[in-house]
Amino acid sequence: MKGGNRLFKCIAVPLFWVAVWQILALLVASPLLLPGPGAVLLRLGELAVTGAFWRSAMLSLVRILCGAVAAVVLGTVLAVVCCRFPLADALLSPLLGMVRSTPVASFILLLLIWIGRDILPAVIVILMVLPVVWANVCAGIRSTAPILLRTARVFRFSPWRTLRRVYVPSVMPYFLSACRTSLGLAWKSGIAAEVLTVPAVSIGKMLYESKLYLETTDLFAWTAVVVVCSLVIEKVLMSAIGRLGRAYAVGGEDA
To answer: Which end of the chain is more exposed for a tag (fewer CB within 10 A), N or C?
Structure first.
């Protein structure tokens, strides 16, 4: 029964909003202002058979994923360092807080002076994602129950076993939350950087040109590509990270 309800929601909810979109498009009666879902889907099919479409999508995907992965790794390492060394926390916390509160457009315009436009979207993703991961992992480490750490010392757990049995289960919910938030943020900031910097081959360039030449249907089609890529990547990566975390925490023989 639950599976049927879940399937119904997965089908009925998107169909409802597509119907709303179609009704609004009929009311507006101007493809220039609001193309219908059928026109957007048809245009998306036309774009999908071209090599330029796949090159733009893949290069944007690589830029954003590389930036997100680098930010997750660096943010996790910095969180461990800050929790271990108070001086590092005192030095880095204000800097990362400032980065977190600065508008993405300011970073894009500033960094465009210093680095090439082809790698700038990945750098922007790092700057936007890193503070989120750092803050969440720090919260996870600091929320580890003291009684668990005392128990680990009493039973003389090795550092490796303490990491696996105590810290990983405590930090994992915070880490997963950070990754889930970061993936959406990565796509938003990365595509925004591409739109402003217009790399030679990118989704951002296609969005910019669609707006420039008033090709609203193309604008909707490329936006749909961004949304679908974001949802698929989030689903796949979150599932993989969750399985890896559970296996890491409980699997295998401890040292």
So the answer is: N
